[in-house]
Input
Amino acid sequence: MSPVRGGVFADVVETQRIPTLVRLAPNLYALTYRLMKMVPARHILRRAAASGRLDRGTTVVETTSGTFGLALAMQCAIDGRDLVLVGDPVIDARLHRQLADLGAMVEIVHHRAAVGGYQATRLARLAEIQAELPNTFCPEQYANPDNPASYAMVAELLTDRLGQIDCLVGPVGSGGSMCGTTRYLRQSNPDLVSVGIDAHRSVLFGQPDGPRVLRGLGNSLRPGNLDHTQFDEVHWVTEADVFHATRRLHQAHALFMGPTSGASYLVGSWWAGAHPDALTVIVLPDEGYRYHDTVYDDAWLAGYGRETPPAPRTVRGPGEADRSWCRLAWRRRSLAEVTAGSHLIEASG
Ligand SMILES: Cc1ncc(COP(=O)(O)O)c(C=O)c1O
Output
């Protein structure tokens, strides 16, 4: 069994979970996390322990290629829990070493299944590990309702610090952060405008699946934790726009963040400019260290062309959102309502 780490370790990890608020403009704030996934990781494990699904001898197992694994590794190290992560080659060597340093066992699958790709191979290997070990717990960030529920704390922090917020803008991957934070903020302000950001060729908001460069936002599967009816607006962003915006965020505000933060900055700055009387908050989920050799390298970035367009193109349905930055008035509808509606528009248009 893994050793329980000391109080200082836990204190340092806690600084990664609690976001800070940075004022970027009179009506624009950045909700800045060092590692946003600490919020659901800690809450999910605590709830599982409280309900008896997770005891001292239980091994935590999860499939992840990114920041949720890192957050689980830190949380499991605090609690002295064994952790097995199943990833794919997207986990680069640096992240792999970081996870191992924190005591996680990392298995990388190399076979890409004909149907479902790496994700399908990862899930199959996860099932094998669960069958091999006597006692396991899988946090399942995509379906576990404790993921969105964990953001009640964030909504409370925002309301305490800023009072009433008019608009929340952030990237969508599992849906947990945006759906959870939106839901709790609406308890005090039902009119809050929630703006979700997706990538082209992601199935989250109704586009057909396809190859994507952006990580963290967008998905090839539609997670149970994505509640489409929370969103007033959806934007599809391009990798070039996002990478350039990530650099502008750093250059203009000294916020050294990852590309999903750049996506928030791109969309949120535009939204705040278009609504000068509204108070807008953008979600910045992680720091930029993993992107030193890419987004923060001028030669690499030059491969993505020049600076970005000033505004998104408004579309009438997900099918119209092409390779440029696009915006759809989602109006808190279900996915079925939106796709049915856009067929009607396309048929009549
Ligand atoms: C860096 C980063 N940003 C944003 C997201 C999206 O957050 P959520 O899964 O809560 O929708 C993720 C999800 O993995 C992420 O890793």
